[in-house]
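Dear colleagues,

I hope this message finds you well. In preparation for our joint manuscript, I am sending the DUF4230 domain-containing protein (Sphingomonas xinjiangensis) sequence together with its predicted structure, so that both groups work from identical material. I would be grateful if you could confirm receipt.
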Amino acid sequence: MKFVALLLALLLTVGAGFWFLGQSVKQQFTGPDPVTIAQASLQGLREQNRLSTFAARYVAVVTSKQSRLGMSAQKTLIMPGMVRYEVDMAKLQQKNVSWDANAKRLTVTLPPVEIVGPEIDLNAMREYDEGGLLMRFTDVEDRLDAANRKAGQAELVRQAREATPMKLAKDATRRAVERSFAMPLKAAGLNATVQVYFPDERPGGSREIWDASRSAREVIENRW
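The corresponding structure tokens are as follows:
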């Protein structure tokens, strides 16, 4: 029995050695795992928290009017402001990244672009008014100023949400994220393409996780 036990232990030891040798040879010839590389890139992007790759300056011109006691007054406000376009990368999850092994394509679906601001340039603001008598003896001027400030900020946001600046912001973010995933893949010698989309660009798109059956965590765990 001792001899049989020793023989079994020896066979298991030899078998384990051949298995580890086979895994080493397999990794040497198959190259680095794109899933592992993409996982590291994903974590790096998430740690950035918010990604801002585009900003634009807009100018709002608004006019408010008030009538009282048979008189009228109006003020025009020219309000410049800076708006930043950001993506909350902390919302990026593994389900937003898929790997097509046959096409050697990594697909990333980002959270939507968010508008941050506007940051008003107070030094560049200009005001023009009419109806000084009514503004002098009533609170009309304060009401006009409040209405103009509110309308001015809304106008800046409206301009920032127009199709052209939103497209520029998406394209700038897309290029930055593509580089974040493509450069490590290329450095590892992997000839893979990276495609980045936003939620409104992929209606009904697939949400497969990395490959057709296994998550990134399972793939990584199976490698050890």
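For the figure legend, we might mention the following. The longest strand covers residues 50-68. The helical segments are 2-30, 34-47, 132-137, 140-160, 163-187, 216-222.

With kind regards,
E.M.
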